[in-house]
Prior knowledge:
Blueprint: H1 3-9, H2 24-35, E1 46-50, H3 54-63, H4 68-72, E2 75-82, H5 84-92, H6 102-125, E3 129-133, H7 140-146, E4 153-162, H8 176-179, H9 190-208, H10 217-225, H11 232-239
Antiparallel strand pairs: 1-2, 2-4, 3-4
Helix pairs in contact: 2-6, 3-7
Amino acid sequence: MNPTIDLLNNHRSIRAFKEQPISQEVINTLVSFGQAAATSSFIQACTVIQVEDSSKREKLAEYAGNQKYVQTAPTFLVFCADMKRHEMACNLHNEQMQSGFTEQFITATVDCALFAQNVAIAAESLDLGVVYIGGIRNKVNDVSDLLDLPELVYPVFGMCIGYPDQSPEVKPRLPLPIVLKKDSYSNVQDSELLADYDKVIRDYYLSRTGGNKDMSWSEQIAGMLVKEARPHMLDFLKARGYLLK
């Protein structure tokens, strides 16, 4: 064990923040640490939009499902998968970019996620708290219009950053044998392990909510996955120049 591992093991989503602002110097540093993340074939396909305009913040909070902390957090960043500058790079050399490939969508999205996780870890190392906001994809067209995103750019998620005004428990993760397989995929023991994990998560929710939430992990996932999952995303991504082939 070392301080880095302790930091990683202590990750919590923070949704209540102190009013204390974060300096632009710190934000710049966090984003530069994001740039230090691994990037597929050096494509560097992430662009970050720091949203400070209060009216835009209010709209983004609404678009994300009325998550008020999007509006009130000291800092809100939107992480975008961005292949636009790659088109520009091709144009600089009078080359026609072959866009629309599914692989490009995967690499740009993965690049963006790796970038953002570096930002999150760096923020937590400075005693800041973060929470990812996937809810901005609820109204992804509206978010894109609000932020003037061009073709080949799409918002993957947002991130609230600030000094924590709460200290929630660390949420227990799946048992390692469910996640770590050796040589091949096997789920022989997974159902038994999941049953035990369900008890852990039920106890966690009961403790965290003072008995108001009585739910296991499998119940939560089953309830989520019987519903449509943002079906508008496919048409949106195709309109942005992704997933065409």
